[in-house]
Specification:
196 residues; five-stranded parallel sheet; 8 helices; 5 strands
Length: 196
């Protein structure tokens, strides 16, 4: 096994030319995965293997996780890949099945998504105007909005047929975390859900 998920890896010399460290600010996209693939395709210079550390791996976008799967399935023999995260179960099950999980607690019980799932089901069945009204009636705070979006993200990971709404969920979270107006963020979500 050449790929691992861990909370705290044993870090090698990060200044080595054989070590690549990915530390995202907001998310990890396909461009970073291409950088990883390119890095791993070359021969190591100072050691016998190349090592990649992906900090906050839970920030991998869905397309990036899909792009990383091939590398995790067939990593070059001289490579080690560490996905470092405190939320490993937010990653795709297919990603988790291709890595060795180390230094992590047992998976949490499934979170109670019944309220979020019921609200999402309501939102899917109505038009934009009604979605705006339903979201306004929830009296969301910034924190409860982020929790709802986290729950939606979890639901998307469980049912990939919902993946077309993933970008709007990620964008809405980004806007909320950037302290944008809560009502505008929820309006953005309501408009984006018309694709589900």
């Amino acid at each position: 096994m050449h790929a691992f998920i861990t909370r705290k890896p044993k870090l090698e010399n990060q200044n080595s030319p054989d070590v690549l460290v990915i530390k995202p600010e907001n998310s990890i996209g396909i461009e970073e995965v291409r950088q990883i693939q390119s890095f791993l395709s070359r021969k190591p210079i100072q050691s016998d293997h190349n090592t990649v550390y992906i900090h906050n791996a839970h920030l991998l976008t869905l397309p990036a996780q899909h792009a990383l799967l091939k590398t995790l399935e067939e990593p070059p023999g001289n490579s080690l890949i560490y996905l470092i995260t405190s939320s490993p179960y937010s990653l795709l099950p297919t990603v988790l099945s291709r890595v060795q999980i180390t230094n992590l607690p047992n998976p949490p019980d499934h979170p109670d998504l019944s309220k979020s799932q019921a609200l999402f089901s309501k939102l899917k069945k109505v038009g934009v105007g009604e979605r705006l009204k339903i979201l306004e009636e929830q009296e969301f705070t910034r924190e409860s909005s982020l929790k709802f979006l986290d729950d939606l993200e979890y639901l998307i990971h469980q049912d990939l047929s919902l993946s077309k709404i993933y970008p709007v969920v990620v964008e809405t979270k980004k806007y909320l975390k950037a302290n944008c107006n809560l009502k505008l963020c929820l309006s953005h979500l309501a408009l984006g859900l018309q694709n589900c």
